[in-house]
Amino acid sequence: MNAPAFPRTGHSACPHDCPSTCALDVEILAGNKIGRIRGAKDNDYTQGVICAKVARYAERVNNPNRLTQPLRRKGEKGSGEWQFIDWEDALDEVAEAFLKAEAKLGAETVWPYYYAGTMGLVQRDGINRLRHAKRYSGFYGTICTNMAWTGYIAGTGKIAGSDPREMAKSDCVVIWGTNAVATQVNVMTHAIKARKERGAKIVAIDIYQNETMKQADLALCLKPGTDAALACAVMHILFRDGHADRAYLARYTDEPQALEAHLADKTPEWAAAITGLDVAEIEAFATLIGTTRKTFFRLGYGFSRQRNGAVAMHAALSIPAVTGAWQYEGGGAFHSNSGIFHLDKTAIEGLDLLDPSVRQLDQSRTASVLTNDPDALAGGPPVTAMIIQNTNPVTVCPDQTLVKQGFARPDLFVAVHEQIMTDTARMADIVLPATMFLEHDDIYKGGGHQYIILGPKLVDPPAECRTNHQVIAGLAKRLGLEQPGFAMTEREHIDLMLQRSGWGTLADLEQTRWIDCQSDFETAHYLNGFGHGDGKYHFRVDWTAVDSENYGAVGPHADMPTLPDHWGSIEAADEAHPFRLATSPARQFLNSTFNETPTSIGRERRPELMIHPDDAAGLGLAEEDLVKVGNTRGEVKLHVKLFDGLKRGVVISEGLWPNSAFIDGKGINTLTGADPVAPFGGAAVHDTKVWVKAA
Length: 695
What we know:
With 695 residues, this protein is α/β, with parallel strands linked by helices. Helix content is 29%, strand content 17%. InterPro entries: Asp_de-COase-like_dom_sf, MoPterin_dinucl-bd_dom, Mopterin_OxRdtase, Mopterin_OxRdtase_4Fe-4S_dom, Prok_Mopterin_Oxidored, YoaE_C.
């Protein structure tokens, strides 16, 4: 048999928590190494374009700081003192700790904890099979999508929208609540194509002049948490100037007359006072979309970062219902296609074992859960044992001081399965080395597009790194679990899920590499009716009845407006805290991933606070000065970066940096709040009031 030739090209999908889920071509080199990663040119969403951080993924795979052996803590928690341990002994210790905890306080004292460090359906979600089989505490994953999805479903009744490839066929693309250049680069691919080929206008709406705003024809920089005020004023102008499609409204929406009456006093002057925009900017935006039928609203996850995010998403989404833009190819709105894939994950997640009476613990309230807040614990026992995969809560969760206190508890056993020694892994009792996406089999669905994409194993992992699936199966065996899913391979899970879901077989997918699941035009544009029972787009919302995943209404849900409106539930600046802080994504990081690679660190440089020069002058601050930023939750130290591309009174810290990158070891989420966000929870990490002082 001839030896394989190198370099050769393998095919995969980006596994990270980004809506683009790019189809990838991977250069495979001799010696079990990878070279450059490129976007697949023959995938008509990716179109050969990927972000620079994934293109240089060899930096992550070959990082000299990568975890390659199991470790047992031998010093105090967080001390960084470790000893090597055999894999079998490590799994024995984890299982023994779980059994001991369960014997003392019941199964719900164990909290399997995970999120989206990989979006692979087998490696990410298989931990739920362990949870359901043992009736361990549930994990209610709220930190990313909750407010945005709830607001979107409130209007359309479904998480789906116009084919995102239609951006290239639009005459106006509105990019709202996402810095697409940094966080989902393929949005820009299609928007810029529309501009080049059709003369389309690009509108960007955000809270600072980021790279996406710089590429826009019209860039609207507003104050954080004021998006709904802008949306309402735009709809006011559309009705006022005769740009509302009344025939469409009568046929496809629930209460257009009530909406118009409600918006009568939502003038551009009213919105200007709230948003910080000029009246002329609001008028220009409304006129542009009112006179451009093919306007495509690309609505991002920024809506999930404010306490009024659900209301803001719904208000912005209501604009194309007023104009009737849904009727046209290249028009309508899109946030995520997560509702179109109809995947049967029963075997992967052990859904046949699910007991709905088991409590669900809110990820966004990790601080409260681990410091034994009775409300956060839903009346059950404290959490005393955890297995953590695919996430780094000591860095990413709000109210970091309490998160750290919780992880430092002597009665809490923590096992972390990880690729790099993260802030969370440093607080563990057992650390297990994990594979990276090119080293295992998995399958992905693209929330930002319409493809199911195969991600097969392309290279071998370092000898002692194991997959998430192997770890969960190893624990299941030690815990005496015999559910068939634990004995299946990753490939068997993929094949069974595809067949049960009506998407063919694994063998079929290996030939095609991806499956286009896009709904037909009439369905995607809701021309056959919206997802609510009455088939209408809903301007009027009963928020506690929205059909979005939840475990009961929380926060000030009774105060939420029933029709689109500005809702002042945000953490407003006050005399003691005159600034609003947003912790926006950094271009070279993806949440807390890539903040360990040399090139990303070099390009991002260090944690900084972007502040308007006039605000800095008033505080006696200059470029690169060290400042303290704080509130009642704590304080952090950063260096000043003067920046006039934001409103006065707004400060930005792009991240997420490891806590150790900060002078005092206190990460930016020391400042963010973990209070319950209406209506169904979430993490309002861009919605924080702070003071700023010279250090």
